[in-house]
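Weekly structure sync, notes
Attendees: PL, DS, HV (note-taker this week)

Item 1: non-specific serine/threonine protein kinase
DS walked through the input record. Source organism listed as Perkinsus marinus. Sequence as pasted into the shared doc:
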Amino acid sequence: MLSTSQASFIDLSVERHSFIRRNTHPFYSRYAVLRELGSGGFGTVLLAEHKRTGTKRAVKQIPKTYVGTDKVVQLVFEHEIASLLALDHPHIVKLIEYFENEVNYYLVFELCAGPDLFDHIIHVFESRENGFQEEEVATIMRHMLKAVVGCHHNNIIHKDIKPENFMFRSKDTARSSLKMIDLGLAEVSTDLERKLFEEDNATAGTPAYMAPEVVADGFYGTASDMWSLGVISYALFTGEPLFGADCADSPAEILDEVLDADFLERRLKNPSLVDKSVDAKDLLRRLLERDPRKRITPEEALKHPFIRSILSKAGEASDGDTICIDMRFAHLFDSHCVERMERFTRLPTLKRMAMMSAAHLIDDDSVAAQQHTFRMFDQNGDGYVSFAELEDGLRRAGVRASSNLRKVFARVDLDNNDALNYNEFMAATLCDTDLSENLALQTFDMMDIDGDGYISPKDLVDFEPNIVSVEHAVDVLLEAFPELVDTVERGISAEDFVRLYLAKAPPLEAVNCPLHDN
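Item 1 (cont.): predicted structure, written out as tokens:
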């Protein structure tokens, strides 16, 4: 049996995708469907409520008949799952878990309650004479660019970027983050410049947002996603579609417009662009560069003067920029994040796993401070914080780093990839007050693989691939619950787990919790 003094020294690599798994229980035993939110070519989106906790989620229901034996449709489904498993980013929608039965697949996502970007653009231009202010456009573009950086960093090309595939997290669009959704056509590949879906190129993308090289040759690369962002940016500046403005245009006519360089030049002389800033028009042209080799990259775009001009107002970082904390956002910077990280490293392994789960499940609205702080540190927008970014960010924000910062960083880096992913950072900086019994019960359900009401050693082995044996799992359980040595084979009950989950972390000093953005 392990003693409690050994608690923080069980070495365990924890992968985020352990928390995104196929739930073996029946979907309807865990969720109640409230209503349909929408439908599309590959299924129906439902609003569902977690029965035990009342948490609302968006569920994509995909009939197995849609997937069937069609090779392209199977690829679409497999690519979406693979992409969502790989991505961990504040501007990409989170897949919580997924189910299947004889009839359907059910992909359970965090709920984005706001409108999609397409509807938002229409609303703004219908309700305001002059449409978006440039600061608003730059904010929206920055969120989209960061999502694209996150994809490309993980060798993923989205291939169907359009306004309908971005949603606001909440109805308060002025304060909400924008999230990329629907990665059904995304491709996970180590070769980011290749010809994809050769069997049916017409399925890979939406004509009005396809890049010229895609239309002409069927070649998709990272630059193709940037062209699509350029088409969206044109709509943000003008309130008009760049291609297919005539509703009667057929897909073939739209593709002809995409290939016509003179047509693009005429559209870029739109009177609505005349009064836009030089920086705005320059970024738009660089996004709509016809030669993909010369087209601006997302990393370059985040450094573009048009995007950088709003950083001090947002209090966020972009590669190379000084972190500025505007007084409107000062309450959101978590100056105690490193102390909380150090407390996290002292927790039993099971509690750290539970905190990782909490970070995966918790609503964005509950952790505004931690999210804002992560985005400040993540200078290149790729969804990871390197040690250099953390150290530099603390220095620029005027926060004195502890002498053991490197050691703390290494122990928070649970997947041992030399960077803190979004989930690791959030887990390590959660406050005791961020945790709730609801979150505890959701986590318990996730880890109770066989559904018998106990988290047993076998459940842990099945849940976390890096727990390599039942004996290893017993050590993890006894580290957290040494008093249960006689019943450890049965496992721990929900009551015991909730007690561990809600127990306050051992203090270093008086560590305060940042205010939430209410």
